[in-house]
Amino acid sequence: KKSHRLYDYIIVGGGAAGAVLANRLSESGKQSVLLLNVAGTPPDAYNGPVLLSDEFIVKKNLTATQGLQLQIIQPGYSAKAFPVSKTGSSPARWLGGSTLPGLSLYLKDHPEILDEWGDGWNWTEMRDYFDKCCGDYGASGVYHISKEPAYTHPLTNDFIAAAEAAGFPKGDLNTLHGKAVGLPATTQYEDGTKVHAYNAYLYPALGRPNLKVLDGARADRLLMDRDRCKGVVYRELATKTDHVIYANREVVLSAGYVYTPRLLFLSGMGPKRELDAVGLPVLHDLPAMGKHVTSARYSPLSWRTDKPSLTHMLGPPISPIASQLPDAYQSTGQEAFARYRSTFSSMKRPLENRSDVVFSFLPMYQALESAPLQFSLQGEPWPLQTNGYTILVTLGETEADGEITFPSASPDVSPVLTHRPLTDEDWKLAEEAVTYAMTVWNNSALGGTFIGNGAGRRNAFSAVYDGRGSCRMGPDRSDSVVDFNLRVHGVQGLRIADGSVIPRPSPYFALPEVLALAERAADLILKTERHEVETQNHRVEMDRKKPALETISIERLKQECGKSASLYEMLTWLEAHHSATEPAK
Ligand SMILES: Cc1cc2nc3c(=O)[nH]c(=O)nc-3n(C[C@H](O)[C@H](O)[C@H](O)COP(=O)(O)OP(=O)(O)OC[C@H]3O[C@@H](n4cnc5c(N)ncnc54)[C@H](O)[C@@H]3O)c2cc1C
Predict the structure, then answer these.
(1) pLDDT bucket at 74, cuts 50 / 70 / 90
(2) In 3D, which of 256, 509, 281 has the Cα closest to residue 404?
(3) Pocket test for ligand 1, best of 378, 470, 509 (most atoms within 8 A of CB)
(4) Class in CATH terms, 6-531
(5) By alpha-carbon position, which residue is closest to atom 30 of ligand 1?
(6) pLDDT at 491
């Protein structure tokens, strides 16, 4: 019998992936689904135009939940990061997760990158799932995608013109392959309002009686029965009390690339040595858990300009000047992209041809201090002073990776994310990319004076704030955390479906891949259930067809075999009798 503490599926985390799963797993009405998330319905401001969200986060510092204030360390990075108290330090906690503060860019990984994910995840197999969630630019799909941003600053057009003059073909960055320049597709409606995972996927499902959303809840531990995950222990943040919920079928982790590994770790699943170090019992040694974090590395080259920039147009609290053009709020911040394949990579890996360097254009100044972009686009204190524009030189595939570590066995202590500095090989690539960017844009129609703030140097490449790979998929437990069906290696009833399982890096942010991955995860989960139900039904049917066991009394046995028959004689008779009465097959 089901009670309010027992659900078919428990989903931990209601961000991009969790919202998709909650919708899809509850869609037929047959399964009971619980979605557990740190915070509840996002404030209306998040439906607003893109940059308003950034401003709003800064004002409210929404990320202060205990134990969920990620510390980001970048050894060797030159600039001191913005203080956490001003910018917040880790993805949003509301339902909708990181899609709420997101910049609304919708740029898919190159198909060649998907082809390297592994069994079942290549571009051809994933294409239907991309279509299912995001469709064809507003014509279909759950998540509305516009072909171009709702707003583009005049400087952005100058950036594109300069790239075209330097030989970058202009076009749709999601369909053109190779070298290209263009405006990004966006998760925006035409009037600039933002599409996020809460309004696209979760809100339409909220009325379903079989879907329960539990917010104000921080999942702290998985309930394990040997190798099987049975449920989740969570903390009700308002009352500081702990509770348990049980899963009839599966627990799905969608708490993102930082907190999904943290939940495994607190449950005794992770690198043995690290669990030992904080005194947690080791349930499963998972050496790859928290390792192999990939985040693109970038450096913000900026030019001072006399022309009006977005900085001037934003208005308080970001800029001292009141916004003259409210459309500026519809900017995605990064308004245009140019990409190419470096000579360095072409020589190193001649058989590959995907672009590995991306130049993103912001019609505003971005200081080094913004790294690693902890929700601060600008990187100088408010109100902003510098009038300029910026090109982020972004390296999509570096040798430098990162790791997430956990200094304590307590869920009240925040994890630590370390992004390693560029390797010598990465630096060769970076040097080429910076020189190329300077050649193309230094004397372009954009004008302006280069700001010598150290950007472009080896110690001025930071990681972006999006990550992948901390629980990556793969065939082998020593090197990955989940298999290609997203099941945690060696554990039953537990899958991971979020950005943490993506095994390959990219120059772009991961939202398109996370949504498509979650769509496929829902299919995998429901297919498993259908298969198990069919097997069970088959068993029941077979049992039904079997003749009911005939009860034979001792008296009858004596009659049939004689009063002094031995036990052996009686068994022989029983066997013969059974064969004679069994129906022919
Ligand atoms: C500031 C910012 C801007 C971005 N901009 C873009 C962009 O323009 N384009 C793009 O493609 N991508 C962008 N991204 C990346 C994109 O948003 C992420 O790749 C995507 O949201 C990841 O989805 P997810 O489901 O893995 O995690 P998330 O969306 O981060 O969701 C995780 C959820 O888990 C919940 N949670 C965490 N821990 C617990 C716990 N212990 N118990 C219960 N709930 C928990 C959180 O509250 C959150 O709701 C951006 C990311 C950030 C941070």
Answers:
(1) confident
(2) 256
(3) 509
(4) alpha beta
(5) 98
(6) 97
